[in-house]
Structure formats: C-alpha cells, structure tokens
Amino acid sequence: MTDAMSPDNGFVVGHEEASLLEGRVAIVSGGGSALDEGVGNGKATAVLLAREGAKVMVVDRRLAAAEATVASIVAEGGDAFAFEGDVTEEATCGAMVAAALERWGSVSVLVNNVGIGSRGSVVEESVESWDRVMRVNVRSMMLTSKFAVPAMAANEPPGGAIVNISSISALRPRNLTAYSTSKGAVIALTKAMAVDHASQGIRVNCVAPGPVYTPMVYAAGMSDEARDLRRNSSLLKIEGSPWDIGNAVAFLASNRARYLTGQVLVVDGGVTLRGPDRDPGNGS
Ligand SMILES: NC(=O)c1ccc[n+]([C@@H]2O[C@H](COP(=O)([O-])OP(=O)(O)OC[C@H]3O[C@@H](n4cnc5c(N)ncnc54)[C@H](O)[C@@H]3O)[C@@H](O)[C@H]2O)c1
What we know:
Oligomer: single chain
Distance between the termini: 51 Å
Mean pLDDT: 91
Largest sheet: 7 strands, parallel
CATH architecture: 3-Layer(aba) Sandwich
Order of helices and strands: EHEHEHEHEHEHHHE
Number of helices: 8
Number of strands: 7
Helix content: 25-40%
Bound molecules: nicotinamide-adenine-dinucleotide
Structural class: alpha/beta
Number of domains: 1
Radius of gyration: 19 Å
Low-confidence stretches: 6-15
C-alpha cells in the first residue's frame, strides 16, 4: 500500500474496518417508538448502530417501547439493554450514563433523539406548551450531554461522538413556532458543544430531518393526500424514512466522519431547496 492509500493519512479512513462502530458503546435517547409496532428515528438509529457493531443502551420514558427496540436488536444478534427514564430529569441522565458505564465500561456515542412537536404561532402558543417543548427538546440534550461528555473524556484515548436531532423546521419554519425555535436551539447547542469539547476528542454534529414517516407523525392520523403532499414537497419526490435518519446518524457517529464537527446534516430529499414549481421568470 502506498502512503497515499494508507488509512492513517486521513484519506482512507475506515478502509479495513469490519463495521463502522465495532466495540463502541452508544446511548440513544427516545430509542423506543411512540407506537410499539412502529419505527421512529430513535429505534431505527439504535438498530443501525447495533448492526454496525455498537452495544446500544436504548433510553425511553416508556420501558415497553425501549424493550421492543432491544428485542429487535437482540433478535439480530446484537447487544442492547433498555433504560426507562425521562431525559428532562437531571437524576435520570446521571443514572443513565452510570448504568452504561457499569454494564459496558465506557460510553463513546450519544444520540440525542428525544423530541416532541407543537403547532401554532407565538400568539396561539401557551406558556405551558412552550416550556414543555423547550424542556423536552433542548434541556434534555444539555442534561444527557452533561453526564456523557465526562465519560467520553475519560475514554482511553479520550473521545466520542454526539449526534443531536434537530429538524428542517429550524431552517424553514412553518407555523410550528415553539418546535422550530427549540430545533434552532439544538443547532446552536451542537455548535457550542463542538467548540467546547473538541479538545477532549469529542465531535458533536446534528442531523436535521425533513418529513419522515414515523409514529410521531402518523399516530395523530395522516391521510394519503397529506402523505402525497409530503412526497411532493421534496425534490426527489419521496418521503423520508426513519432508516434514512439512522444511516446519517451512524455515519456521523463513526470514524468516517472524523473530520466533521459542529455540522448540520440536512436529510430531507431536497425539501429545503425546493422553490416554486414554476420559474417566476425574473431570475429571482
Ligand atoms: N418524524 C419527523 O418527520 C421528524 C422530522 C424532523 C425531526 N424529527 C425529530 O426526530 C426525533 C424523533 O422523532 P420521531 O418522529 O422518531 O418520534 P417518536 O415519537 O416516534 O419517538 C420518540 C420517542 O421518544 C420518547 N420520548 C419522548 N419524550 C421523552 C423523554 N422526555 N424522555 C425519554 N423518552 C422520551 C417517546 O416515548 C418515543 O418513544 C425528534 O427529535 C423529532 O423532533 C422528526
């Protein structure tokens, strides 16, 4: 092998890796699904990280949902366990990291996937709902990271990867004002953490999904028409699947993304790029 083709020179990273995440310990928040039989972004991510060789701690406030994900992973020969808890609670987040350390001795990947929706403008929004969205979507990510970062810094060599789940609603708001604001904060949090923890070998990136067909979306009911609208809102004319999000997360969590930190990976089939169907003809 010539020097130019050496995996050590940074160009051919992962050339001889059997799996992207072999031996890593990952924590995925909201790793269950809102509906037991469904697959959300967190569940797809947990399964894909396990397929890449990671041991996965599936955290969810609904134990049955976390256990369903663990069962899927174990059925495929992977290693996972379920942790019940609300990640807006500081004590839960501390206990979550402690449990992963006790079981597997390290933590090297954290996926902050928990998030809830909201509708309406600031005029329509209630203070209670605003606070709840900020608490679940932003505070939870601060708290899980508060405990995961020291664990990653204690790795030998120090390091890890954190992937936060934002949304294209942060980039292209559409009457989901509290949600959009919280997801914008997730992007700022990602960049701030990337700066703060680079010296500890920790990369922090963010995935901004477009419309993805998950239980969070269809639990409330979605017509075929609405689904068509979602498909047509993308350049590729397809609707996102939770596996699209999981694949993006697995990449960012792996060494293949070793030169990426503080970035927002938009996974939306081109929804945010799509302009009017017809060229307005004035070059604008
Ligand atoms: N589905 C989409 O179209 C879409 C688009 C953009 C971004 N996202 C983001 O993707 C992430 C996951 O969304 P999803 O659609 O897969 O959701 P989902 O509702 O299917 O799954 C979320 C899981 O998180 C759990 N959870 C919620 N609050 C929790 C808490 N406080 N503590 C612990 N667990 C908790 C739920 O029990 C559920 O199992 C969210 O951050 C969401 O904002 C989704």
